[in-house]
Amino acid sequence: MINIVLFGKPGAGKGTQAEFLKSKYQLFHISTGDLFRHHISNKTDLGRLAQSFMEKGDLVPDQVTIDMLKDAVENNPEAKGFIFDGFPRTAKQAEALDGFLSEKSMQITATVALEADDDVLVERLINRGKTSGRVDDQDEEKIRNRFEEYNNKTAPLRKFYSAQGKFYSVDGIGDIDQITKRLNTLIDGLH
Ligand code: AMP
User: What domains, with CATH codes, occur in the chain?
Assistant: First the structure.
């Protein structure tokens, strides 16, 4: 079983690359951002709560996020492995994920960061916002706030996974298929 955490700032290409990885390695893709957006379109209580944070570019509180993630894993017992996209984003989430997976005799195989400069990412997100309709992609101030949240709360996880010998970086700049090849080379080398 391989379980990959896709790590990187908003716009780094996690969602795009997860689509390729999930078919190549037959993994189940869990994007907490997509799950929240699904709750918002279905007008659930969780969706209403998440929306107030997401619209500002703030992180949604840990406990509801962790509970939602656990449900997604538990609802897919047949999965051969998972791609965690956009989770964990805080130390508390990372610790909860390790604890939860070990209860199931599972563990993270690797955390792979897609690296790109902020200016490239802002441009990508503004472009994506033109078609995605996502309010958090349409305003540079909100985008910068998402980067702030990342720098303050998510970036420290590099150390957390490095200490476990599980942290890998991949250059996230270039053609999509070039980046996919870099990821494939890395993941194939993990076995
Ligand atoms: P994403 O689609 O991954 O860019 O996530 C969009 C937004 O959903 C983020 O800016 C957060 O508001 C929220 N979100 C997604 N994943 C998490 C998470 N693991 N923890 C807290 N908030 C999250």
Answer: 2-188 (3.40.50.300)
